[in-house]
């Protein structure tokens, strides 16, 4: 496993395990398998409705708490200072933990314009020692600029949709300038077209790897944190086997050229669902 050092000095595994769209009971089994394979970073959220299932797997695991890195998120309906503090306590209870390693705002929900107050609640949780680090998801540059101007703690990362068809170059450049890591959700384009892309398949063949492994390796070599999700045991293992090969600069460039600025998920400015 390779670790990155966040802007507050906290170390985080660069490869984590996501549980979006995983049922509560299934999350227990999937997380248990991920921990067995060697993952120690688990990414969940209140809206996934599987925090209890994740917590059960953590409780039953032999991995010491201090070796785990657990992320959860506050949902749009809980924006606002007091709401966020309450939502955090509820997530903590469902997870069965005394603290989380990373707490994130799930979406900026700009229509409601409460994400600054929400982030200030995250700052309180951080200062109170209830979380080791705080950050955001799906924030565009203007949203980040407001936080940097109006809040005290620089987010450690911005978790966004990112894959070879949506490389997020401008956002990555802005985040790098402000020492904010980019973390990729849907790193494999939800198992979409990118895994059948001719260029990706050719590179995979050259290395004796799968297209998914090549795409994950591309993320890692781009200094991006990545959280692939799967409930299939063989895929959970496969996604972890990405540290024993390296893409050449030519191969990296070939994948860079695939960008279409094409999303599978909603645009952050439009995601105001509560």
Gist?
By secondary structure, this protein is an alpha/beta fold. Helices cover 39% and strands 15% of the residues. The N and C termini lie far apart (37 Å).
Could you describe the 3D structure shown?
- There is one protein chain.
- With 274 residues, the chain is an alpha/beta fold.
- The chain contains ten helices and ten strands.
- The chain has helices at residues 24-37, 51-60, 81-95, 115-127, 141-150, 169-177, 198-207, 211-221, 233-240, 249-256; strands at residues 3-5, 11-13, 17-18, 41-43, 69-74, 100-105, 131-137, 157-161, 181-185, 225-226.
- The strands form two sheets. An eight-stranded parallel sheet has the order 3-4-5-6-7-8-9-10. It has a two-stranded antiparallel ribbon with strand order 1-2.
- Helix 3 (81-95) crosses helix 4 (115-127).
- The longest helix is centred in the N-terminal third of the chain and has 15 residues, at 81-95.
- It is globular and about 55 Å long.
